Amino acid sequence: MSLGPATTIARLREQVGDLVSAHRSARDLRAFRRYADDPIGFVRRVLKGEPWARQEAIAALVRDHPLVAVRSCNSAGKDWIAAALSLWWVYARQGLVLLTGPTQRQVVEILMQGEVRRAFARAEDLPGELYQSALRVPGAAHAGILAFTSSEASRMTGHHAPRVLAILTEAQACEDFAYEGLLACATGDGDRVLAVGNPLAPTGRFYAVQRPGTGWVSLRIAADEHPNVVHDDPDRIPGGVTRAFVGPRTRSTTSGSSSTGGRRAPSPPTRWRATWRSGSGTG
Question: Number of structural domains, the chain?
Fold first, then answer.
């Protein structure tokens, strides 16, 4: 027997894991409403973060469009901005974030205990309790984060809150039914869906939503746009993609030689250009 939406939400709330962080002395939740239409202001002034240009572009798209898909090279900061936008949505728009990905490691370790925890720790005036797979905000019944693997997302169909932001991370590996489940939750005029991932193959739902005429707004982020690569400084944004990742791959496409001289063969240029493999027609 399948679980109803209300039962699934209740169970997810019970299975939030251990308490990771809590801010006992914090500002009133109403203080953050001034950032409802200014996600970058919230990221900079509240979360004390410094997004680069393409992360700012993602934030603006989520603010302005209901359906956003971002295909990107590796290490461009997709999870960083997804975490920042999650907190913006909770505190500035006082909404519910449904955060999903294909594996427990991606959802809990990388996002919730990684990017979300670090952003929450920097903003000591944010009220709330951060658990392994949830964020709870006292006095805000509809504001918070629920994180779960995409296999659980199929059970979310029909759940609604006043303001919903659904985020699919590593979206190229999320099942079709996960998209359907979250899209069914984000049906209000002010709701949003953000899918971020790597364009590994021109197949599946992540590829399909970026085709013309789908209603989704699409953004591509190539490695050679990243500040670490542009300025040839691997420490400009720690952990970001570097010139070492792009350079050898660029040369491999122009030298006309397939020899690697005993070194590991470079990945295809589509990997750092964030383009689909040949024949997809989407770039």
Answer: 1
